[in-house]
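Review box. Two proteins, two foldings.
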Amino acid sequence: MVFLNYGGPSLNFDPNKVQTGTLFSRRYRNRRLGDFLKELDLTEGKATGIPIIKRALANNGSPEAQFETDEDRSYFQVILKMHSEFVTKMPDGVSGGVNELLQLIIDYPGSRVPFFVETMDVPGRTVERFLKTLRDEGTIEFRGAPKTGGYYIVG
């Protein structure tokens, strides 16, 4: 699951501190809005979201969230990967390549056919056939424009 905010984090945000768990924000963009949302129990508080996300994922045994931004702080993206026990494998008798492709889509959401061809070391037509199997079952979907989009798990 990918969450993308084009507002981006504030300039005092240090992406390296997210990974170490020492993230504390002291400058808020809209303190009144934050206080209002907290009163409605729609937020936990100021600068508590990322530590709460990290703790909840760790307690659940889920993979760590990925937090991304650029130097200009023009966007902020959070990627949550699916728990390995949640993923259902294809029924017996279906190609192991389909399961391998499914795992790649889980691990690298938004990837495209050239990535799968290179990673799996199979022809593009084979990857397309595997993708068709997963699309027909409703397991994956293509999101975005044909030249820039990628494949994602449905749900």
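Next protein.
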Amino acid sequence: MSFFNIAGIGRDELSRIREISVVLAGYGFGEIVANIPFPGRLILPKTRKEHFGKTHAERLRMAIEEMGTAYVKFGQFLSSRPDLIPAEYINEFKKLRDDASPLDFSEIEGVFKEEWGDNWRDNFALVLEKPIGSASIAQVHKARLADGNEVALKVLRPGIRDQIKGDLGIMMFLAKFIEKHFESLRFFRPVQLAEEFSRNLKRETDFQREALVIRKIKENHRDMEDRVLIPGIVGNLSTGKIMVMEYVDGLPLDKVDISPEEKRRLARLAAEVMVKQVLDDGLFHADPHPGNLLYTFDSRLSYLDFGMVGRLSPKMKNELIDLLLAAHSNQPEMLLQQVLYLGDVQQEVDRNTLVREIMEISDRHLSVSLEDISIGRALYDIFDLIRVYEITVHPAYTVVARAIMTAEGTLRQLDPKINVLEEIASPIKKLFFRRYSPDYISINARMLAKDIYRSLTNMPDQMGHIMRKLKTGQLKMEFRHVGLESMMKTMDGVSNRIAFSLVISAIIIGSSLLISLDVGPTIMGVQAFGFIGFILALIFGSWLLFSILKSKKY
């Protein structure tokens, strides 16, 4: 049984892996895919001449663009993970775009019929066949319902789920292969990363889930409806492949022609909404670029496209509040303490060195002129820094950092001199002090008492279970030697060389005995089988010597 059969890879997936391998090799990554044990022979192309002189990050970004939708989405996903990949790769992956040519309306109509039946037009007075937006996963059409209300129809591209499902399976296979065969890349946790991305992409192609998120966010902004518009969902028509939502008439923030005072008002409103969504609601728009924010004709701020959202638990919100307040007070020691508190430290860290590097980040992004202050960029650089120290943080924090950085860019298009850190400091402090209100303390005390009570009541059963296993000899303890992997590989290599040397020695001895007997056919007067044996011993011995010299371990 082949390696691919064991991994559950079928013929179609194998063909796709070959295709991806050829693309990667063409961009100079042949050494990675060369280790994949393809059945038969796979001839990989050499790096194309036009890619000479380009950086690894540039070539990888170009390869991803050629590999298709799922891989472009994966590159965009990685661009929000400064805790895992270096800044040069993040900057390149930010250039990835998932724009796509619009599909012919006849193909979109097929989805309408599949979801609503042949009489789907009865629901509408008008559907514009020309899309108002098109991307790799969906395209959007404007329509008017039978009752006269204008709506936007977000339609999933036909066949995109099956295509993505196949590529996600291949990604998981490649992640397991990399984690098993490339020890230097295990810190990046390829399998965990692939699983996380798979969950995110599946959510993005489930419009029923997105509709639920939009409803929840609209409910969260109920008290701000006079200033903030979240489009409503037409529930009786929305399905997993089609989302019908209120059509918002307005202009993207980067195209509005309004007074400077109105722009400043919008900038402060967007900053207020960002703090509310991230730190109060714990459910936030993760890609607030100017194209996703509209200025409506009744002077409200509207948010569109909730395919990318972030979530924070109450504990994570509190940790992030402490982190942002430490950044606002510009105290590197406190900032480091908060980073270590919310991160998973894999090894001992030199705190003094880390504090100095955080001070440099603070000086670069927080202790500068108003127009250059960037809390999002500071968080990004901190997460990039701790990656070097093998400190991992929950992915939600990096999504927050990316969202804040994107929002800062949007705010500065409206008001170049806005001090984002000061704008968000006041509402953050209110949330901080709310933690110490009697109601909040009472709720947390009840939750803590409940947890303590549950632990105490479960303890006798758990201790009894352990004692029974100990009494019957079923209690097992697993020990793992950490750091001996390289030694085991070395021992394997040494034992293989010894075994190979013994085989060569046996061939030489056997050949010598055959020659001394002087029986059977001869070659140039020498016993034939003995002569062939010496030739084989010479070839094997030369190969063994060459491998030893090549490894430079002698």
